[in-house]
Amino acid sequence: MSTQRERDIYADRRTNPRKKTNAVGKVMLNDNITLLDCTILDLSDGGAKLEFGSRQVLPRSFILQLHTGSVVRCEVRWAKDNFFGVRFLGDDEE
Questions:
Q1: Using CA of residue 15, residue 16, residue 19, residue 21, what is the dihedral sign?
Q2: Largest Cα–Cα distance in the chain?
Q3: Residue 40 is part of a domain; what is its CATH number?
Q4: Going by C-beta distance under 8 Å and a sequence separation of 6 or more, which residues neighbour residue 31?
Q5: Best CA proximity match to 52, nearest among 66, 31, 65, 37
Q6: Among 43, 66, 86, 90, which is most exposed with the fewest C-beta within 10 angstroms?
Q7: What is the dihedral of CA 45, 51, 57, 63, to 10 degrees?
Q8: Does 50 fall in a domain?
Q9: 44 located within any domain
Q10: Which domain holds residue 81?
Q11: What is the rounded CA–CA span in Å between residue 46 and residue 18?
Q12: In the chain, how many domains are there?
């Protein structure tokens, strides 16, 4: 039987709940010269989980074009294989 402390280790600590989307997105690099297709697996007001067709090396921050056409600045929070968790940056953040 697990304790409350053990359960808390695996708790979802996001402030904004994510919704599964499975939508198409594009990572824009090098002043929008390089575009990398990705799948936006889930999305919230504060970030997203991205999947690429193969392993990628991304900079710490980049522009993501959402399936709606809007663009957001992102910061990589974690990466594993071809998956990335990103946080959306505000206008006043670098």
A1: negative
A2: 53
A3: 2.40.10.220
A4: none
A5: 37
A6: 90
A7: -30
A8: yes
A9: yes
A10: 4-88
A11: 9
A12: 1
> What is the token pair recorded at 48?
């997203």
Its pTM stands at 0.80
Tens of pLDDT, residue by residue over 56-69, are: 999 999 999 998 99
Q: Return d(Cα 40, Cα 33) in angstroms, integer.
A: 21
In a domain, 78, yes or no: yes
pLDDT in tens, 12-46: 565 677 789 999 999 999 988 899 999 999 999 99
Given 3-state DSSP classes, what are the helix, strand and coil percentages for the chain, each rounded to the nearest 5?
A: 5, 50, 45
**Secondary structure class of 22 (helix, strand, coil):** strand
Residue 94 falls within a domain, yes or no?
A: no
Tokens found for residue 74: 């992102």
Helix (H, G, I), strand (E, B) or coil at 9: helix
- Here the tokens at position 40 are 């936006």
